[in-house]
Amino acid sequence: VRYGGILALGCHGAATQTRTLPDLVTEVTIIDANGNLNTFSEAKDPKEFAAATVNLGLLGIIYTYTIRIEPMFNLLMIDRFPPLSDYFSTPEEGGPKLKAMVLGNDSTEIFYWPFNSAGFEATNDHIWVKQWRRTSDPVCKSAEYGESRKQTQVYKSLLSAQLFDFMAANPAIAPYMNWVIFVVKSRNDADEVMEVPDAIHYQAGIDNMPCVNLEMAFKVNEDFSNVVVAWNYVIGQMRFVKSSTMLMSNAYDPDPDAIYCTVEILSANNTPGFKEFSGKMAKFWMDNFQA
Which top-rank group of organisms is this from (predicted)? Predict the structure, then answer.
């Protein structure tokens, strides 16, 4: 993962108090097909800049990005495992609860493993809710503890990659393994203060777990009810992000305060039927939410 790839593709993170990562860029230089070095500046030519910053590599070789930064700060990272029905029972009930939670956080991310409760009934399932809030409190754990945790996560990711391959080849065991994985993960709620890079990149070793992925972004309506509808059609991974000024961003919107929901479906590599399944999901989101 490199800055050039992250910014050119419009990668977004999960923040609603700040905008997407490319919206931190103030200048980009690109070498075109004729070998000319072109400079696009937010201050001098904002329209051209909005097209050039997120360019998917179509305009030439990206030579430099200039990024706006701020001093280091800490985040309180909150992990909770509430019942699925707490937020996604109906659009009328779940939407306002989601809105209150998302607007009360700097960042919010929601995960779901199917078949994570006894009896494999979705009505009994739980979700994993991660919330981040700025804080002036000091970091909870030592740097040595943080490094040790990262190494442990790397080893676990290597083991998980083998497990996911086995599940893809033997789909009948997937419900049982999902249940075990979630029970282990959700044993304890947790609150921890971390420096912002560690809080955002809380999981080390994810490159060891190759997967297939579908992501769609759509604009959240006033009461967040459309989020519940989109989520309940197929439950995967969800983030909330503030809109972007970059024209090719999947969260582009002229309204600087608009909030977008990005829904991701991740599955182990070589999962049978994923292409057809993800195509069906993408069509539903595009038809119903202009994703």
Answer: Eukaryota
CA distance linking residue 141 with residue 149, whole number of Å: 11
Q: Report the interhelical angle of 143-169 vs 174-185 (nearest 10°).
A: 170
Closest CA to 65 of 2, 4, 12: 4
**The whole model's pTM is what?**
0.87
8 A C-beta contact, residue 237 and residue 110: yes
How far CA 37 is from CA of 34, 59, 61, 189, 289, in Å, comes to 9, 11, 9, 51, 39
Task: Determine contact, residues 28/66, Cβ cutoff 8 Å.
Answer: yes
Q: Average pLDDT in the 170-193 region?
A: 87
Tell me which DSSP letter residue 139 carries: P
Provide the token pair at 178: 């999902």
Delineate the domains of the chain, giving CATH numbers in brackets. 3-67 (3.30.465.10), 74-289 (3.40.462.10)
* Beta strands at 237-242 and 259-268: parallel, antiparallel or unpaired: antiparallel
Q: What's the confidence (pLDDT) of residue 194?
A: 96
Please tell me the distance from the alpha carbon of residue 107 to that of residue 215, in angstroms, as a whole number. 18
Coil vs helix vs strand at 210: coil
Higher-pLDDT residue of 18 and 282 is 282
- In this predicted structure, the answer to whether residue 153 has a pLDDT above a threshold of 80 is yes
- Of the candidates 153, 152, 149, 177, the one whose C-alpha atom is nearest the C-alpha of residue 163 is 177
> pLDDT tens digit string along 189-216?
999 999 999 999 999 998 888 888 888 8
Q: Which two tokens stand for residue 188?
A: 């304890």
